[in-house]
Amino acid sequence: MNDFLLLMWKPFLACLILTGIHAYLGIHVIERGVIFVDLALAQIAALGATVGFLFGLDLHGPFNYWFSLGATFLGAIIFSLTRTKKERIPQEAIIGIVYAVSAAFAILILSHFPEGDEEIRHMLVGNILLVDFNEILKMAILYGIVGLFHWYFRKTFILISTKPEEAIKKGISIKGWDIVFYLTFGFVVTSSVQIAGVLLVFAFLIVPAVGAILFSDDLPRRLFLGWIIGTVTSVIGIVLSYLFDLPTGATVVCTFGGLLILLTASKKLLGI
């Protein structure tokens, strides 16, 4: 038991912080109907870091963070500008294309390096088991600032995500606020993907929000349920990875999938 706590308390703390911000952002993403935007932005962040690595920077070093953040900001601006009231081409199609091209480009770059296969694996599922306390602290501070910013402007963010037509009638700039939303989103994703990898970041964003939406139409209740789902899944996934000596990130992602299946089946059986 002592060995488990010693090894797993930092990954669990990191998962709690990821749950806190991503469950909230996930509700916005689902309301907007851009389910894969987090996956795409996470992949763009990974691509930015890969480009920095190509120029001789440490792939996981602090300086390469700015390459990653710059690429994410570029993707955020593209996604905010491609959201239109009448879409001839669905924005989800654009997001999917950006994800696929970014992933392929990153793989092409990494394939020329001896450690490329390992870095591709790290890009997908990260290595949250080795997260240190300084990374957790920085992540908590950054996400806390983003969370406070979103709380202060919560009425505007909620309105443009859930009722964009009403926001337009009130004279709110959808494009302007979309840029702000995606830029703050980009800060979160860039930091998350360095620790957790593309797939785990996506799972933390979407699964708690989807699970919460299954059982409630009330936004505050959805957020509370999302936090519970993310926390419970993190505990189960980390315990399973420890007991069966499995990669922590991949185990937590699969646990998210299994829990969502159970939640869906429970809803149907209970008739809720």
What's this entry about, in short?
The chain is mainly alpha-helical and 272 residues long. It contains eleven helices and no strands. The protein has a single domain, classed as Orthogonal Bundle (ABC transporter involved in vitamin B12 uptake, BtuC), CATH 1.10.3470.
Give a written overview of the molecule.
The protein has 272 residues and is mainly α. It has 11 helices and no strands. It has helices at 2-32, 37-54, 64-81, 91-110, 116-125, 133-152, 154-162, 164-169, 174-215, 219-243, 248-270. Helix 3 (64-81) crosses helix 9 (174-215). The mean pLDDT is 86.
Strand content: under 5%
Name of the CATH class: Mainly Alpha
Helix content: over 70%
Q: So what's the oligomer here?
A: single chain
**Helix/strand/pairing category:** mainly alpha
Topology diagram in text:
Elements: H1 2-32, H2 37-54, H3 64-81, H4 91-110, H5 116-125, H6 133-152, H7 154-162, H8 164-169, H9 174-215, H10 219-243, H11 248-270
Helix pairs in contact: 1-6, 1-7, 1-9, 1-10, 2-3, 2-4, 2-9, 3-9, 4-5, 5-9, 6-9, 9-10, 9-11, 10-11
